[in-house]
Amino acid sequence: MVKQKLFCVLFALSCAASVGAQLSDHAEHHGLMRVVYAVKNYIDSSAVRGIDHSYIGVPDRPWQVVARSNVSQSILRMHSTIDAEAFFSNVQGNFLWEPRITTDPSFSVGVWGGYRGYGIGYQQNVAGDKGSTLSLGATGGNYGLNVRFHRFETDEPKVFYEGDFVQDDGRVVHERETFQNVLLSPIRVHTLIADGYYLLNGRHFSYSAAYDQSAIQLRSAGSLMVGAMYYYSHVNYAADENADFILLMNNIGHVRQWQAGVGLGYAYNWVPARGWLVSAAVMPLVTFVNRSKMTTYDSNYRQLAVDEEEHDDDELSPWEYRISEMGEYHRTNRLALNTDTRLSVTYQRKRWYLNAYGCYNHFRYHAENSHGQLHDWLACVQLGYRL
Q1: pTM
Q2: Strands, E, within the chain: which ranges?
Q3: 3-class DSSP state for residue 333?
Q4: C-beta of residue 365 within 8 angstroms of C-beta of residue 372
Q5: What is residue 129's predicted lDDT score, i.e. its pLDDT?
Q6: Three-state DSSP class for 273?
Q7: Alpha carbons 182 and 41: distance in angstroms, whole number
């Protein structure tokens, strides 16, 4: 996450520089301030360049302060199939192990601040899972970029398992069961989603009017849009206390995934009455970069399971488990088709505006006998004020 954090810092510094440009009329005469002043002029000019003012309005007051509240949920499923006979004497054939992590719907609050659609926001969960979200935004007349960091953790995944178990009397019974697996060390998940777009009808259609309100859509209009999306996730449960869990995940303790895709979609802004805006956008995306990296681990628990003729893995308590890294392997997955879908409703009154929007993302990874998928949805309500 070092590159992502560095990007975040640089973005925040550029926003802070824009603030400094407002502090003095003669700022352009002093080294760095001249650059800042040039950036400010570029942002101001890009907000009005090439637009039809009968369709799109630009607020006189460029600064925005926004109170935000999100409801979100993450659903992570990890699927593993192992040759159980190699480790357990009471299991025959393959054994399926599928942790299902469904976080409680999380409620977060926070703020966002920016200048003509260029800004930064932070939200902290106050109910549901333990996590936070950092968001960055940059929009112009016919382009935009959004970046969202999210993290969450859980130590109580639900696990579905299926296998053939040998009973004491020699009978083999096929079992399918779901139970709550309590971990002594939590599963931690970090994600980064960045999406950008370019509007082919930026003269009449404003995407920012629907999502950051740095512009105002005055008349209904639609536009084809070219877009791109980047996704990174890091799932980490590599802790000594989780040695038994790691064994059942085919010795995998770390999963990293990268995806990048491009697409062509359509968005429409409907203005049913003065001050109101309803916007919908659909963009199919072809994922041309789809890579995964898995880190595997050995452990004293695994060694006892392998050597159970002489030892019993129950000889160890979870507090005595010790893991050690065995190696890494990479997998390049085939092309995939995803869809980016969004819906937004906005009401504006003078300097105040109220907005609600929702989005949904779905990503997959695959490696040998293990695979997984992450579902992530978000609904946001925000109250903004222009300065």
Answers
A1: 0.71
A2: 56-57, 63-83, 91-102, 106-115, 118-127, 130-139, 143-154, 158-166, 172-180, 187-199, 216-217, 221-236, 252-270, 276-299, 323-332, 336-349, 352-367, 370-386
A3: coil
A4: yes
A5: 66
A6: coil
A7: 56
